[in-house]
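Entry 12.
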Amino acid sequence: MTSELPLLATPAHGVPPLVDTSDEFSMACRELAHGSGPIAIDAERASGIRYGQRAFLVQLRRAGAGTVLLDSEVLADLSPLNSSFGEDEWVIHSVTQDLPCLQERGMRPKALFDTELAARMLGWEKFGLAAVAERTLGIRLAKEHSASDWSRRPLPKEWLNYAALDVEVLLPIRDILHESLIEAHKWEFARQEFENLLDFQPKHYDEPWRRTHGLTKLKSRRDIAKVRELWTARDDMGAEADIAPSRILRDRDLVALAQSRLQSSDDVMVKWPKLARADAGRLFRAYRKATRLTVDELPRRKDANAVQARTPFSHADLKDRVAALKAAMAELAETHAIPHDVLLQPAIVKALGAQPRGDVEEFLVGRGARQWQVELSAPVLQDTLESLPAA
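Predicted 3D structure (tokens):
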């Protein structure tokens, strides 16, 4: 049982001091450069508290150099680390979560190993860092500070202790996962995925306000316009105050505001009395702007950037085709003990269903599938498509 495993409470060599001056950072870069092998890297953000997803603390560990804790908010530019690490591998748990905030600080890897993705490729149902540490190292890893406000200064000693432990376990975990991938004949699959992650960029939305939770409940283009203007005002307010926009108003509050019939900022204050009067006024002005737009200025009900694939199939036939392809991929995923969304992105499978018969392999390559994904998936998908009725 998990509770019977020993708790890793403190780093083996204690908690290192926080590096927060340029001189200390230069010294840390030299020490890391003199180390050897892969570099364990983690980052702590203040998601849901501060605006954006920037890193407030970056943790590093390397053989021969030990653990380094960087105050990345003060240091800002961490690009000198790139030359310290050279071509060596960066070990990160969940690259898609941490790499964007590291890139924002100027860090660019030449090689990657994602311990979360490795665990998923091995078919593990639990792949959070604590669960992976339990399975690989036989230890419990405390995670009570994962949602803390890492923008706080000074950082409490127990938080730094927690942060140091995260990178202390990454390198031994990496070695065990590497061996497990080789034994499972999946190392080449993982290697291609890690190489692909080097170019990872978070998805960009031309109209991010359309991701407002509850927006689909609105049928009126005028109300949708109100959400757009309110979302933009809230986002600007969050950026200026450096707080998460959701702490000003939640998405459901924006939708409720759009459905209200406001006459003044006082009406906003009545509904949300915790708002500052200046903020209520700003939101009301955004609301009023939306009420004065011409019909041509109102947003479409659907995302203008959501391009529907041309298909000769009816809606019902398309639904059946996609279902058949998904079923085939689910069976293939179970055979190889790889999650279906790792085996091949669901969006690619859905897009393939809308295509008339053609070269599946060429289609997958054109959609960015890696070679291992093409080799495993293309024959199954091709056979499935050929078994379905033509358009």
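Annotation: The chain is about 50% helix and 10% strand. Residues 315-387 form a domain with the DNA polymerase; domain 1 fold (CATH 1.10.150.80).
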